[in-house]
Amino acid sequence: MPRPDPALLNPARYPFSCAITPRFGDLDVNLHVNNVAMAGFLEDGRVRFHHASGYRSSLNDLSSMIASNAIEYLDEVHYPDAVDVHCAIETLGRTSHTVIQLVTQHGRIAVFARAVMVGVGPQGPTPLPPAFVTNATEWMLRP
Question: Please, are residues 98 and 90 in contact by the beta-carbon 8 Å criterion?
Answer without folding.
Answer: yes
